[in-house]
Amino acid sequence: MSPYESPSAIIADFRISDPSEIDIEAIAQSRGATIIYEPIEGCAARILGNGDQAIITVDDGPNVGRRRFSAAHEFGHWMRDRAKIRFACTDQAMLASWVNVDAERGANEYAADLLLPKTLFQPAARNKPLTLDSAQDLAILFRTSVTATAIRLLRYGSFPGILIFLESGKRKWFIRGEDVPDVLWAHEFPPKATYAADLIGNRTLDNAAGAVQADGWIDHPQSRWYEVHEHSCRISKNGILTLLWWKNEKQLLDLTREEK
Ligand SMILES: [Zn+2]
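A: This is the predicted complex of the input protein with zinc ion.
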């Protein structure tokens, strides 16, 4: 079995200095895992390990970013989860696993660190508006999934916000950016006056953005006095990704002041 190596050790070993140089197939091959793309049913990707060799099969879907992310996710299992070297991972499981502590989240984080290394991502994300358009642009540059890229943008970008994933209209998870106080929670169901609610109500609409009153999204008594910028996108049949951006940071500043 290949010994564990961190994503940053692999990035250094391959002397990667540009996103275009992150060749996931070559990286995996060098650590004993062969990546194959072909149509598979029932999951997005799977890995079968045997001794120090593994075969990673990734569904040959149309979206190159998702394919690469799925491949890197399986490679993450190969590096991290020695005791279990047989995984079949659905898109749904990968999407759902950004907040739980389990093998799936570990493989997601590994894939994000490998395909979107902080050292390359942070300069590329600097001063980019906190919107899903920016996430989309960066996802193209790094050739990876929009969800993984949006999480990185929230974590390593320049502005404060919250990322929410809705499945069938209900909040599945949300992640706060670093400067967003813990007292702010995203509603479990997006109320009417939000762009996500428009997307849920209108199946032909895939993408909507604009200013909304913060209490539309944020469960906090004073929220109605503030505004956030919302960008919502349909990312799968029942999945909607919403990125909230405090363009005007007054709410966050007022809350930070109250805490003191
Ligand atoms: Zn997995």
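Residues 209 and 231 are 4 Å apart (CA to CA). The mean pLDDT is 91.
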